[in-house]
Amino acid sequence: MLIVKIKKGENINKALKRFKNKVRSTKLVRNIREGQYFSKPSEIKRRAKKKAIRVNQWRLENEEI
């Protein structure tokens, strides 16, 4: 559960912006969406492996520059 304490005299827009940043940094929305349906463990592993391959290729391409 995310909590954003509003300081005395603080603008509500600043507090909302801090809340949005917290939501983005904790990847809350992504976790909620992933929990809406069941994915087999093998499917999760396959996705993670594909992502690792993509990230590795991207890093290798950017090192050469």
Descriptive account of the structure:
- This protein has 65 residues and is mainly alpha-helical.
- It has one domain.
- It has 3 helices and no strands.
- The protein has helices at residues 12-26, 28-34, 41-63.
- It is flat and about 50 Å long.
- It starts with 11 loop residues before the first helix and ends with a helix.
- The mean pLDDT is 91.
SS element count, helices: 3
Give the amount of beta strand, in percent. under 5%
The count of β-strands is 0
Helix-and-strand structural type: mainly alpha
> Which spans have pLDDT < 50 for at least 5 consecutive residues?
none
Largest sheet: none
List the topology elements.
Layout: H1 12-26, H2 28-34, H3 41-63
What's a quick, concise take on this entry?
By secondary structure, the protein is an all-alpha fold.
Give keywords.
65 residues; mainly alpha; 3 helices
